[in-house]
Amino acid sequence: MMRRTEQAPDGEQDVDASDVAFTDLLEDSAEELYEQAPCGYLSTLMDGTIVKINTTLLEWLGLSRRQVAGRMRFADLLTVGGKLYHETHFAPLLQMKGEVGGVALDIKTATGQRMPVLVTSKVKTSDHGEPMLIRTTIFDARDRRAYETELLRARQAAEEARRQAEADRERLQEVLAVLQQSLLPAELPMVPGLEAVSYYHTASPDLLGGDFYDLFPLGADRWAFFLGDVCGKGPQAAAVTSLTRYTLRAAALHDPDPVTVLTTLNTVLHERYTSGDTRYCTAIFGVLSPGSDHDVSVHLASGGHPSALIQRADGTAHYLPTPGGMLIGVLPQAQFTPARTRLFPGDTLLLYTDGLPEARTGPQRELYGDEALQAFTATQPSAGPQALITALTGLLTGFGDGLDDDTALLALGVPAFCTPGPGSYEAAD
Fold first, then answer.
1. Is pTM, for the whole model, over 0.85?
2. Can you tell me whether residue 80 is helix, strand or coil?
3. What band does 428 get if pLDDT is binned at 50, 70 and 90?
């Protein structure tokens, strides 16, 4: 009779073989674990004399066990700076607390090279609490030091880049400020029988604004003035501003009629920017003519610009309407609205760009608006252009970040040295 021999399935045999191999891997001796650890181990007497050191640390140092054990102290393994730190900080702290961890030091190899390490030491005590020896673990920190060095270098490079960017920004702001000033009169001329004051608020020192104004003589005791705003910001807007100012002055000397001057400007801008990037502006241009009763006649025209505001000597304030004026430079033929008025002693004519009425106020960020500007002006004493501009400057400052556009102000007034004469305050053509 034949007997059948039972055998384990092939899969179970493979599992048993794997278990045996894994068990063999775990059967490291304590001595091997100590000697071949991925970190350095050493034990010293309380005076620092090394009595035991593992192979890993010896290989890092490039020394033999005979050269180290019983012959060297832990401090002898350190660089000069490390020795000083060990004596003044590490050793006293270890003696006081019994343990010090994660201290960055440099050890010195047999070839004189420095090796960054992290050191942790702990005092072993007897059953009675008497210190017996010091056990120290040393970790290789070369990769960490390289990372820290690279991080420090990156931080220094970033800081240098930041300083350079700030310096470049400051230089750019200086250039922009000079260029912005070149687009405005350095100071307004002295006009007999008239006070003229201007103010320019720059919303951002990093951008060139397109607001402009000027006051200049025409001859025969007449003076021309204008104030406007070019669309956009930056160098292109500055180029349009420069062209606009030049054109207005040149056209006024040829024919000072306000509508004719704005028509000439419209033709120049439309022909210059008819292809590609369309550029346009809004503006008020006017002529001042002294009267016989200490008054000044004002003849102006508007092209898409906010209406001029008049502060009267009696404390009232009202707009000089110029409805229907079209943007300048958009169409080949544009309509411009003229208007006339007279300024008597104590009256002030205020021109401004849209940054003022379009400022945002309150928690709802609502537009400041024309009505609020009129009411504000009416509450100010009729003390002339300088007082009004000062008050408006404070108003602009009070808007804070709600004022996000450049704003130009031009105030023209007759000094209050006599009683106003007869005549209509305003009349539209």
1. no
2. helix
3. very low
Using CB atoms within 10 Å of the CB of residue 284, give its burial: 0 to 12 exposed, 13 to 18 middle, 19+ buried.
buried
> What does the alpha-carbon distance between residue 106 and residue 112 come to, in Å, rounded to a whole number?
11
Backbone angles phi, psi at 107, to 5 degrees: -100, 160
**Residue range 244-292, pLDDT digits in tens:** 999 999 999 999 999 999 999 999 999 888 776 778 999 999 999 998 7
Q: Where are the beta strands (DSSP E) in 166-322?
A: 195-201, 211-219, 222-230, 281-290, 296-303, 308-311, 317-320
Taking CA atoms, 57 is separated from 27, 107, 125, in Å, by 23, 10, 24
φ, ψ dihedrals at 335, nearest 5°: -100, 135
Q: What local confidence, expressed as pLDDT, does residue 147 receive?
A: 77
Long-range CB contacts (< 8 A, 24+ apart) of 275-278?
Answer: 277/236, 278/329, 278/330
What distance lies between CA 420 and its chain's CA centroid? Answer: 51
C-alpha–C-alpha distance, residues 137 and 150, integer Å: 26
The values of phi and psi at residue 411, to 5°, are -115, 130
Bridge partners of 229? 211, 282
CA distance 209 to 327: 18
The first and second tokens of residue 360, run together, are 């945002």
